[in-house]
Write a structure and sequence with these properties.
- The protein has nine helices and 15 strands.
- 43% of the residues are buried.
- The chain is 28% helix and 26% strand.
- It folds into three domains: 1-104 and 215-236, Periplasmic binding protein-like II (D-Maltodextrin-Binding Protein, domain 2, 3-Layer(aba) Sandwich); 111-202, Periplasmic binding protein-like II (D-Maltodextrin-Binding Protein, domain 2, 3-Layer(aba) Sandwich); 238-312, Porphobilinogen deaminase, C-terminal domain (Double Stranded RNA Binding Domain, 2-Layer Sandwich), CATH 3.30.160.40.
- It has 312 residues and is an alpha/beta fold.
- It has helices at 14-30, 44-47, 69-77, 135-144, 157-161, 177-182, 226-233, 238-254, 301-311; strands at residues 6-10, 36-40, 82-86, 98-103, 111-115, 129-132, 149-152, 172-176, 186-187, 190-193, 196-202, 217-222, 262-269, 272-279, 290-297.
- Strands 7-6-8-5-11-10-9 form a seven-stranded mixed beta sheet. A five-stranded mixed beta sheet has the order 2-1-3-12-4, with helices on both faces.
């Protein structure tokens, strides 16, 4: 292995930095003596917090990775050796010249309903205002509770959590469990922030399907960089990789992007990979979604995705 440092690129949010710390620790455990350096890169998604995701079409292609584009530019220029991503932010159709070299063991995949008082999807007040930046979450909320009002919210994880506090608070916010757990915010169904304790209900992933890749950390490198790829493969988690290959390949075959209202849930039992999907009509989110579930050999995740896509 080269004696020069391995440079990891990352966004600058608290969660992104925490995830890069996790990757660094595992890499150094796998390769004693490896020096890892961190380079913070601001992406277009971070720079334009004033824009809703639906407005990014005017300044960038949201489904082409508003949270990874600048990191890929740095990879291409050789300024970094690898980039650390939340996998659900990475387009299913990766740009030419790049590869996902490894994925970390997956965190909990579920979404969390955050409220001031203990609440479930069923007991939210009629007409409650729910904050989310995800069209998948918005579509599922409107499908399960047509009376609710969905409000788009942006910002880092703590900023979005605090939308249920302060003046004119939202009734609830939906966030991924993985980020809340990695930041140490969610413990035993409670979230402590700004000296206040609020509630975080982890939703059943069968009732409320997560995003493809949710809970997984991906490390991306240049396609031809065999040395870096070999270094990164040492920390790859095989079961997580199997599951996310199926989820991402399904999205790719569907022509779906990061902001397409599709839920995907996978699990492995006795050598079988199971996958459930829920696909909403982008033109009419109120329409009943298409729901499918299939199983297949866990060593052929792309084939399972292809079979599901053919039925969709």
């Amino acid at each position: 292995m080269s004696s020069r440092p391995l440079i990891l690129g990352t966004r600058g949010s608290e969660l992104a930095l925490k995830q890069t710390e996790m990757v660094t620790a595992v890499l150094q455990a796998a390769h004693p003596g490896l020096v890892v350096e961190r380079k913070i890169i601001q992406t277009s998604g971070d720079k334009r917090q004033d824009l809703r995701f639906s407005e990014f079409a005017d300044v960038a292609q949201v489904d082409k990775g508003i949270f990874i584009k600048e990191l890929e530019i740095a990879l291409e220029k050789g300024e970094i050796d690898a980039a650390v991503h939340s996998l659900k932010d990475v387009p299913s159709d990766l740009a030419s010249g790049f590869q996902i070299a490894a994925v970390m063991p997956r965190a909990p995949i579920e979404d969390v309903l955050i409220t001031r008082e203990a609440c479930t999807l069923e007991t939210l007040p009629k007409g409650a205002r729910i904050g989310t930046s995800s069209v998948r979450r918005a579509a599922q909320m409107k499908w399960l509770r047509p009376d609710l009002e969905v409000v788009e919210v942006r910002g880092n994880v703590p900023t979005r959590v605090k939308k249920v506090l302060g003046d004119q608070p939202l009734d609830a916010v939906l966030l991924a469990a993985a980020g809340l757990i990695r930041l140490g915010l969610l413990k035993g169904g409670l979230i402590e922030i700004d000296g206040q304790t609020i509630h975080g209900l982890t939703l059943d992933p069968i009732q409320f399907l997560p995003a493809a890749g949710q809970g997984a950390i991906a490390i991306e490198c240049r396609s031809g960089d065999d040395s870096t790829r070999t270094t990164l493969r040492a920390i790859n988690h095989a079961d997580t990789e199997t599951r996310v290959i199926a989820e991402r390949e399904y999205l790719r075959l569907l022509g779906a992007g990061c902001q397409t209202p599709v839920g995907a849930h996978t699990w492995i039992t006795n050598g079988l990979l199971h996958m459930a999907v829920r696909v909403f009509d982008e033109a009419d989110l109120s329409a009943k979604p298409k729901e499918l579930e299939l199983s297949g050999p866990s060593d052929k995740p792309a084939l399972l995705a292809e079979r599901l896509a053919m039925l969709t």
